[in-house]
Every structure is written in structure tokens, then in C-alpha cells.
């Protein structure tokens, strides 16, 4: 994260070159959150505010914060209305009152967080039936040219590998599987009711144990074990259910892929 705080960091260039997220991602998050209040959404580690801008039409108020002053300085505003940008870390949300936020999102940012501090803050600021959505995407993939994908990944992990800050980069490459949750994931009858709201969802039926070694829970006070889902997407952008997670959390890891070579 220190890269984004440097005086030489080109926030305007970042704004124009950073990948955005597919519309279906927001459909999934909003479908999961259905039934919760839509008064206030918060984007933490917001960067230039891609997620904040996309959520703006769906909430009465949208706030966004990032540790980098340069990121906040290029924060995207809607055509009408206003997103409240501020400089701040996910570990310190003291500027927000308790029970004041309905939806919290973090796009390609959760790998930077100290979750021993973030989860207690989220438990404090979220209203009942609130939702947390951690979103991430994996490495670039040439969907019709697997050899090109292999060459690209060899370059990224070989010659360029030493330039990636760790452990953040490895957490991203693992699609946030190493991010600890505040409670152990459980599966109950509420899960199907939640999933029925998610559009175009395909259940893989793959057992949890075959997908991931769940990290031990951390900072679980204030969280109830219950039903929710980890959602990943195929290269075609189809959302796939791969495992349950913790109550009031939708941990959406969309493997954001682009075909850069002609078929």
C-alpha cells in the first residue's frame, strides 16, 4: 500500500488504467443484500472509487475512504449527487458512528488489511442485516490462448515477481482464500434462501474441504455464525457457488479476465 502513498504515484494514470468490475458483480452483491437497508454504503480501500460510483444509484448515501490522499484526490463523482471521499484506513473507522452503515465493500483491497483490527471495526459500524463484500480478481488470462497465459504468468511470477509487495500479492493470486473471517463458516437452511436471490447462479456442488483450507477465524466478537457464500466466476463471467462462509458476508471473488488476443 505504501506505493500509493508515494509523492511520485500517478493517481490519474491509475484511474484510467485500472480494470473495473462487471455489472453482474453488483447484481450479485445487491441480490445478496436484498432485505437489508439501503441508507448508507461504504467503500473501504476505495482507490478512485469504482465501486462507490457503481453503488451510488442504489443507496441514499455513499462514502468512500482510502489511506492514499492521491487516490482520494481523483475520486470519481456521479453525474448528479455526491460521494463523500475521505482519507482513512480500514483499520480505523472512528469517524463513523456505530450502526451507521448497511453495506461495506472492498475492491481489490482486502489483501492489505489487518483483519484483527478491521473485523471489530466492521462489527461496530454495520447495522443489523448489514453486508460486507470483499471483491477481488485474479491474474490476467488470455481465455482463447492458454500458452500466452502461461508465458504471461511466468513473467509476472519470475522476472517481475520480486517487485510485488508480499504477502499481499500472493493473497490476491489466491483470490483472497487466505483472508481470515471472524467466525467459522457454517451451512444451514438460510443458505438456499440467500442463493435464490442471486441471478444466474450455478452451484458447483464441490465440497468445502476440496476447495480451500479455511484460515482460523479472527476477531469474531460481534459476529454470528450463519449462512452465506463465497462466490467466484468462471472465465465466462458466470457466478459459481464454491463454499459457504460467515453470516452477513458475501465474499465475492470474481476472476476478472480479458481476452487481449484475437481468437
From TrEMBL:
Annotated ranges, domain Methyltransferase type: 42-133
Biological process, per Gene Ontology: methylation
MF terms (GO), sorted A to Z: S-adenosylmethionine-dependent methyltransferase activity
Superkingdom field: Eukaryota
Species name: Cutaneotrichosporon cavernicola
Matches recorded under Pfam families: Methyltransf_11
Family listed: Belongs to the methyltransferase superfamily.
Protein name listed in UniProt: Methyltransferase type 11 domain-containing protein
Keyword terms: Methyltransferase, Transferase
